[in-house]
Amino acid sequence: MKTIRCPKGQWTRVLFSFGVALDKDWKVSFASDNGVLSGEVTIFRTVWVFPRPQESLRLQPTMLFQRNMINGIFSVKVKPDIDVIANIK
After folding, report:
1. pLDDT the model gives residue 33
2. How deeply is 45 buried, as exposed, middle or buried, from its count of CB atoms within 10 A (0-12, 13-18, 19+)?
3. Is the dihedral angle over the CA atoms 27, 29, 30, 36 positive or is it negative?
4. Which CATH superfamily, name and number, covers 2-88?
5. pLDDT for position 37
6. pLDDT in the model for residue 47
7. Are the CB atoms for 10 and 40 separated by under 8 Å?
């Protein structure tokens, strides 16, 4: 398990892979002692070398991210409204 600190109001990259042609799932749990969990998550992926539109999601306590075989670049960034810790499995 990997742990990443995500400061409030700043974009923090929690996942990144480049040039890996295998499917993979990550389960990321977000937690904070400072209040209600909220914020924004963006997912960027390419199909081979062609960029796809970014996906935007609301930050949830537990999130599952999936990289597909054709995603040459896969990146997940988080911008929480309060300081959070991301635990990646």
Report:
1. 87
2. buried
3. positive
4. Mitogen Ypm (2.60.120.510)
5. 94
6. 83
7. no
How many C-beta atoms surround the C-beta of residue 79 within 10 A?
A: 16
Nearest CA to 73 out of 34, 37, 46 is that of: 46
Dist. CA 4–CA 77, nearest whole Å: 11
CA of 72: how far to CAs of 39, 45, 50, in Å? 27, 7, 9
Whether pTM exceeds 0.85? yes
Q: How many residues make up the chain in this entry?
A: 89
CB 84 within 8 A of CB 36: no
pLDDT, averaged per 10 consecutive residues of the chain (89 residues), comes to 96 91 87 92 88 94 90 92 96
Structure-token pair, residue 44:
């960027």
